[in-house]
Amino acid sequence: MTCNLVIRRDAMRPFHGALVCAEENGVLAEMSRAGHSMRYDAELFVYHERRSDYPAFAKQMLNYGRGRGHLFTHQPSSLLPAALIPATLSLYLLALPALLLLNAWSVAPLGAYLALVALASTGIGWSLRRPAAALVSWPLILSLHLGYGLGFWIGMFEGLGPASARSALLERD
Question: Within a 10 A sphere around the Cβ of 116, how many other Cβ atoms?
Fold first, then answer.
């Protein structure tokens, strides 16, 4: 998720026209393959307005995942392993009812995941010195992971569709 990006004109690559979002990730992957160096400068920053409510945040996460799924279908080498974690979580949750019929212990990974979310939420509350932030961050972390994961699969299947369907998707968005 790139919010602030400066690229020399001679190094810039065109945005892929079939992507619904995550275009900058595609450009960065192409630039990396071409051997361009990239740097992070903590002194450069940009203000990024946050979503005003929960539904807008959830939709944003779904779209981020959707963009990553689209990008994967067009540039498989751009896939970061971390993007597969929410995607795998969403598949696991969809399969969980069937898995439970086979083995009651199938719920164990969900318990471990929820424990990690609780730990991360506690860490957020601790770092902000605001215990209430832990309670607020819990549903946001879940929404981030589930939205991104489901969005990844939606974007991947959209990206694998015929070119005419991809064009219609671009017009819709």
Answer: 11
